[in-house]
Amino acid sequence: MADKMPFGEGASINRPPLFFGVNYQFWKVRMKIFMHSTDKGIWETIENGPFMPQVKRDEVLIDKPKREVHY
């Protein structure tokens, strides 16, 4: 019975759910839950793109040069 399930790896909190090419909608929900539980910022980055620090120069926002970015 277990070998007929598309997600035979089980529910792990350390590894993301594997996608085997079937039942994408189910996998997508599980992957989103996994990422939220790991760090909510991960999902926000996937939806919105990476955070780009900006600086205001001459009343215009521009991306901060990489040499000035300190994470």
Could you characterize the architecture of this molecule?
The chain is of the alpha+beta class and 71 residues long. Helices cover 34% and strands 11% of the residues. It has two helices and two strands. It has a two-stranded antiparallel sheet. Strand 1 and strand 2 form a beta hairpin. Helix 1 packs across helix 2. The radius of gyration is 19 Å and the shape is elongated. The N and C termini lie far apart (48 Å). The mean pLDDT is 78.
Return the string of H and E elements. Answer: HHEE
What is the molecular shape? elongated
**Which structural class matches the secondary elements?**
alpha+beta
Task: Report the end-to-end length measured between terminal Cα atoms.
Answer: 48 Å
Radius of gyration: 19 Å
Strand order of the largest sheet: 1-2
As a percent range, the share of helical residues equals 25-40%
Could you list the spans in which at least 5 consecutive residues all have pLDDT below 50?
A: none
Summarize the biggest pleated sheet: 2 strands, antiparallel
Total number of helices: 2
Q: What portion of the residues fall into strands of 2 or more residues?
A: 5-15%
Entry summary:
The protein has 71 residues and is of the alpha+beta class.
List keywords for this structure.
single chain, 71 residues, alpha+beta, two-stranded antiparallel sheet, 2 helices, 2 strands, 34% helix, 11% strand
